[in-house]
Recover the amino acids of this structure.
């Protein structure tokens, strides 16, 4: 096929917003429409992408690529129900949804998975986000890659199995890391202190891991030193929080075990 | 007492290095000596602090403040064994060690705890690091605070109980967050992919939390959405890693429970 020039985005969530922002400012690619069920949010995301909005399937614009940025559950049903031309490229952005969740009636199916945490109203540098592509249609590989390279400097082909693992890894490195910040906030809060005091530490921890080949090599603290006295002092503060005490013990033990391997 | 002008640093670990670097470049305060048992590392840290090194207790220089940057276990014994003048200020930098671990023979005891993760050879902006001070000597409060303000813009008095909790919070927000990165690395590694792919995600996760009032308000992912289908897909990949599976389930459950409270 030829190059992907006209794109319709489907969805109005955080991924749709980030993609609208970046595709909307792309010179080689035109964001011709945003399709979304929620009128208020749909209009808002369309405006961010400098395009028009519709919630009427009959008004769906003609395009080379229909990019579904919707919840995992909605991918299959929405792709089947919308009057997308069977010759167009249909792709979804869901990390843990396999390629074949897209209906087989489309000859050109693909996955376009940007590995990042997207938040409403928050601009991210899309050019540094790794984009993982998948397609079983060999003729689609080159146009799909060319399209992705308009948006990011890191474009990688990965199959559904790899992508599922990437999504799982992202849950640990992002959602669970963020939850460790939240537990830190809870603990300083109990001492009458503010979460803001932890921010320089959080920022440096992430910077240090990003400067390292592996986060294992830059680990610090009582667990990696196997400092049991400090660990006992810490768990003694958590007797009224059984989950935190358990997480403390298990994560500490795992830090020590992993550190011995390097 | 008068201002703290002359400082001897004791220790050659990562905290000693960071303090040598910042005190060594201070105009109002002079780093007169570094005392450390390890000659090679002692000389190295002394050079960073543009000062002299000794490992001979008899050569310990005269100073207003003796700052012990040593392991938690070594604080009490080293403070007792060195010929520190009983009229000098003696302080330690250990988050989870109480003030009274310092021998009572010193009239002016203090704690000087910088809340940050320090790594050998890595420069950090000391001015943004919160420094937690403690002393039971009222006349020492003002000179101690004045000294700390030479180094950082964030100086807070906190008692041993608060500091112990700060240290515990730091373990979660730093060491455990870093371990979540390490588990992410392990998972992408199993899929034949590189840790570097997670770096933009890690950086954005930390930036987003630092821009927020609370990390709870910026949580994303299947746990906070209570998306059980994705969670089941994820845990199915972890059946051969019982600890990871358990952490996945418990942290996800806690994310969901906490999100309901806000």
């Amino acid at each position: 096929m030829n190059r992907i020039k006209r794109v319709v985005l489907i969805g109005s969530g955080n991924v749709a917003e980030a993609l609208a922002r970046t595709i909307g400012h792309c010179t080689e690619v035109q964001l011709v429409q945003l399709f979304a069920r929620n009128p208020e949010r749909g209009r808002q995301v369309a405006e961010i992408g400098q395009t028009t909005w519709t919630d009427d399937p009959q008004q769906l614009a003609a395009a080379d690529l229909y990019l579904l940025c919707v919840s995992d559950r909605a991918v299959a049903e929405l792709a089947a129900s919308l009057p997308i031309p069977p010759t167009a490229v249909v792709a979804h952005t869901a990390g843990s949804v396999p390629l074949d969740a897209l209906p087989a009636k489309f000859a050109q199916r693909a996955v376009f998975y940007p590995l990042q945490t997207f938040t409403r109203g928050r601009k991210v540098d899309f050019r540094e986000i790794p984009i993982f592509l998948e397609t079983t249609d060999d003729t689609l590989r080159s146009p799909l890659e060319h399209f992705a390279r308009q948006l990011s400097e890191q474009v990688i082909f990965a199959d559904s199995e790899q992508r599922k693992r990437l999504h799982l890894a992202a849950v640990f490195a992002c959602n669970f890391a963020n939850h460790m910040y939240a537990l830190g906030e809870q603990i300083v809060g109990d001492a009458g202190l503010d979460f803001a005091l932890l921010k320089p530490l959080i920022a440096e921890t992430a910077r240090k891991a990003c400067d390292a080949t592996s986060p294992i090599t830059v680990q610090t603290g009582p667990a990696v030193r196997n400092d049991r006295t400090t660990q006992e002092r810490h768990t003694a503060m958590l007797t009224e929080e059984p989950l935190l005490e358990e997480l403390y013990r298990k994560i500490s033990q795992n830090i020590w075990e992993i550190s011995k391997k390097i």
Summary: Chain B touches chain A through 91 residues (CB under 8 Å). The mean pLDDT of chain B is 96. Residues 40 and 115 of chain B are 27 Å apart (CA to CA).
